[in-house]
């Protein structure tokens, strides 16, 4: 087995899905948490000048989604067929589009920018959530797989897109009231995902973070 080190800041952010993949697969790794004070001296040594970075036998891999896809394929959480893998990737790409739409609200909610949070919630967050979570609701129903709903967004097994969306919902709930109330199948996926025994163990002990 290769050695793994995941370098990221102390918050969940872009590193959390990969951390969860390590924990649910039972794969040992070094959870390297870099403080904001330490980051400048590490920045130049990273491939793209940003984190997270996954080190596999000391070989670096940047970009959060590239890391998550790599680990998911290594550990069996990428999809059970080439078509399922492609659907997971499609939803992940759609998430990126959605995140750019909701980002102005989140930046204010996280305290990284100035703005009227309530106004942004109504004018930015609510339309973005409606657009994206309507897509997720439909995907949870069929995912291009002939209408068979198994409690996951794609196929009949847990994938990294379930982890990504479930963690994002947790973030939204810290800033909005019942953000997925209109999406019962999304809620089912989220509930099933966080009930995974090894994930439950990690969620219970991980450092507290609002983002």
TrEMBL record:
It catalyses: RX + glutathione = an S-substituted glutathione + a halide anion + H(+). Keywords: Transferase. Gene3D superfamilies: 1.20.1050.10, Glutaredoxin. One of its GO terms (molecular function) is glutathione transferase activity. One of its GO terms (biological process) is glutathione metabolic process. The keyword Phosphoprotein does not apply. InterPro entries: Glutathione-S-Trfase_C-like, Glutathione-S-Trfase_C_sf, Glutathione_S-Trfase, Glutathione_S-Trfase_N, GST_C, GST_superfamily, Thioredoxin-like_sf. SUPFAM superfamilies: GST C-terminal domain-like, Thioredoxin-like. It comes from the Eukaryota. The keyword RNA-binding does not apply. Pfam families: GST_C_3 (PF14497), GST_N (PF02798). Its EC number is 2.5.1.18. Belongs to the GST superfamily. Sigma family. This is glutathione transferase. It comes from Pristionchus pacificus (Parasitic nematode worm). The gene is WBGene00117833.
